[in-house]
Amino acid sequence: MIYRVKTGMFAWLMFRITGLTLIVYLGLHLTVVSSLQNPATFDKTMGWLGSWQFRLLEIGLFVAVLYHALNGIRILLVDFGRGALAQAKIFWILAVIGFVLLVAGGYPMLSHALHWKSVQEGRAAAAADDPLFLEGGLQPALCAAERNLPVEEDLGRAEARPPRTK
Question: At 131, is the secondary structure helix, strand, or coil?
């Protein structure tokens, strides 16, 4: 017997695939976050997380989350509403909404992934101009005190802290 792939079967299959993808991602996310606590692997991990390859994987994650969430809404409408007879129509309406959200959210992610080289060069230029800019980024704890910048206090007043003495 040959099955014809219809909208409901496709939605069911993709819901399972994106669910498994999100479970695998969660495990990888926990592994990466735990590796950031080790100073020896921190720079290497952060370098990989800033690469264009990882940025493209983020777009894939965005697609999986978006599909899984919108199909979950479709399932709620079909199961708890009167959408059983119009489940294919609901699928395609949510697909159009998903495409609009994908373009709106995916464009900034994709443009950042495609221009990662200029972002890296911008960081290098900032590091050359700023003595507090270290390889991993600005150290926020030092910025206000070292530069004698105003710091907000309890009542919203701005007071300048004296510079640190070494």
Answer: coil
Separation CA 163–CA 165 (nearest Å) = 7
- Count other C-beta atoms under 10 Å from residue 90's C-beta: 22
Q: What is the pLDDT of residues 38-78, one digit of tens each?
A: 877 888 888 888 787 888 888 999 999 999 999 999 999 88
CA distance 106 to 111: 8
Question: How many structural domains compose the chain?
Answer: 2
* Residue in this structure with the two tokens 């994650």, named with its chain if needed: 61
> 110 lies in which domain range?
7-122
Q: Tens digit of pLDDT for each residue in 114-135?
A: 776 666 666 666 656 655 555 4
| Residue at 49: amino acid letter | L
Measure CA of the first residue to CA of the last residue in the chain; give whole Å: 80
Contact 53, 116 (CB under 8 A): no
Structure-token pair, residue 19: 């669910």
Q: Are 51 and 92 found together in one domain?
A: yes
